[in-house]
Amino acid sequence: MSTLLTRAQIVQAGLELAGRTDLTTKANRWLNMWLENQYYDFDWNWLIKSSLGNVLTEGMSLPLDYVRNKMFTLGFNNTREPMEVITIEEYNDRLRDANSIGRPLKIYIDQTTHQLYFYPKPDANSYTLDIQYFYMPEPVWGNDSQLLVNAVYVYALKYLDDARYQAERKNLDEDLASCKMNDYDMRGGKHKILLGKSFKRRFGTWRQN
Q1: d(CA 208, CA 29)
Q2: Does the global pTM surpass 0.70?
Q3: What is the secondary structure of the chain as a DSSP string?
Q4: Contact 46/191 with Cβ under 8 angstroms?
Q5: What confidence score (pLDDT) does residue 80 get?
Q6: Dihedral angle, C-alpha 126, 63, 144, 37, nearest 10 °
Q7: Which of 61, 91, 149, 152 is the most buried (most CB within 10 A)?
Q8: pLDDT tens digit string along 126-141?
Q9: CA distance linking residue 141 with residue 34, whole number of Å
Q10: Which residues of the chain have pLDDT under 50?
């Protein structure tokens, strides 16, 4: 049975394994750093949210906790169809068409402003947009907390230049790979995790409060 621990318990347990319980402040930073790396490396299926029935408008904003897209679905006349995400180059190239107004088929995500733009641009008809996305979570791991304990332990060993570091780092990587293998939504190997409250989403920088 999996055991879910609080952040404080995770940090304490990891430092106890390393024999240095005085490194709490550093260990909280280490845990955030490790979680950030995993979050952007793998889209964990338990971090998916839905934002449904949004009235589609050019330049509409994404949800505040949005990190990465899973699926955009256009709603029109009781029908729903998935939308293709395109790059800024593709979007700009298509806009050269003077007749680029109609039912939107493609979507461009401006990661800097967190806004959405469409091709063709929406006409006067009523459209809605359902968004499935990976979000920025609170510090709750979706699997056994022991993996996070081990992450703190490994970072502590590295900090202490402990001879056990290489072997324990290998064990940590193998445990993480096992979690990914057991995650049902593989999607080409791109998936994620959770971060602590001390993290603020950066489209330039993450900073710890």
Answers
A1: 8
A2: no
A3: ------HHHHHHHHHHHHT-TT-HHHHHHHHHHHHHHHHHHB--GGGEEEEEEEEP-TTEEPPTTEEEEEEEEEEETTEEEE-EEE-HHHHHHHTTSTT-EES--EEEEETTTTEEEEESEE-SS--EEEEEEEE---S--SS-THHHHHHHHHHHHHHTT-TTHHHHHHHHHHHHHHHHHT-S--GGG-B-----TTB---SS---B-
A4: no
A5: 94
A6: 120
A7: 152
A8: 999 999 998 876 655 6
A9: 12
A10: 1, 186-209
Can you read off the two tokens belonging to residue 7? 């952040």
Tokens (6 digits) for 71: 């699926």
Give me the pLDDT at residue 42, please. Answer: 80
d(CA 191, CA 209) in angstroms, rounded, equals 26
Gap between the Cα atoms of 37 and 22, Å rounded: 25
Amino acid making up residue 58 = E
The residue type found at 161 is D
